[in-house]
Amino acid sequence: MDWNGFVREALLGVGKNLYIMAVIVIPVMVVLELARDLQVLDRVAGWLAPAVGIFRLSREAAFPLLVGIIFGIAYGAGVLIEEARSGRLSWRDLFLINVFLSVCHAVVEDTALFMAVGADGLVILLGRFIAAILITYIISRSAWLERESVKRGLPDLAGAAGNSPGKCC
Amino acid sequence: MITAATWKRGLQKGILTTWHLARVIVPVYLVVTLLKYTPVMGWIAGLFAPVMRFFGLPGEASLVLVLGKLLNIYAALGAISSLDLTGREITIIAAILLLSHSLPVESAVSGRTGVSGLLMTALRLIMGVLAGLTVNLFW
């Protein structure tokens, strides 16, 4: 085995990897923190609220969805668990947000890292976004989801706005 | 409000994340690079080449996919940077892995929000395969 070749490649590679990561990750984290403190997402979620209607999601779903898309599942789940406890989101909302985010989350960091090793950023970012919209839309219209939502005894936001005795106040 | 604390927190998080990344990427990178210098890489590549061909990927890419799905994106990045892959191949790997990575950990997170982790894992595996085939066919 060519030990010399291995050691040379290993040292060079480790150095290059560390450099690329630091150069990408540190600015990304700073920008994300700035966005958080400027409460950019609250505002964007406000504009986005009507748009999540295409999945028959409640307006409250826009904020946790957006947090997950930008910051990632870990942050997103924190907000989700909080919202789930507060009772503002139904099981149906939670399920669809999970579906969307499982496909499309932490887009800033993920896309930047894959671009750093040579992937086409536009293809993976757009591809992921489109895939998430398609799959969430299909599932949001499935008979299975309607059955499950009813089974879980939570208000069906799709059609039962007028006759949902379970929803008080 | 933006204060000095915002910048400090961003920097700290960036450095901490880089450290977390390095702890995964560097060992994976070293092991994969070592494998390249042994016949083992050739065996793995030969074994998986027939399946990987559907995705327009060389056999070695199977290693990247397994690392990404079982561990995380960072482990996959470490392996990618060790292998000699083209931009197109890396984009296909990214498409597959971005839809289905860290499956054991992330399905546990889904579980905590009350949604079946097993179901999400199955869904993501299928979507990952479809994404890889799609990018390979149409791009």
TrEMBL record, chain A:
Task: Give the transmembrane ranges.
Answer: 18-35, 63-82, 94-116, 122-139
- Report the domain of life of the source organism: Bacteria
Q: Which UniProt keywords apply?
A: Membrane, Transmembrane, Transmembrane helix
Q: Where is the Nucleoside transporter/FeoB GTPase Gate domain?
A: 20-108
Q: What is this protein called?
A: Nucleoside transporter/FeoB GTPase Gate domain-containing protein
Name its species.
Answer: Desulfoscipio geothermicus DSM 3669
From TrEMBL, chain B:
Q: Does the keyword Iron-sulfur apply?
A: no
Q: Which UniProt keywords apply?
A: Membrane, Transmembrane, Transmembrane helix
Which stretches make up the Nucleoside transporter/FeoB GTPase Gate domain? 21-105
Positions of transmembrane segments: 21-49, 61-83, 90-109, 115-138
Q: What is this protein called?
A: Nucleoside recognition
Naturally occurring in which organism (per UniProt): Desulfoscipio geothermicus DSM 3669
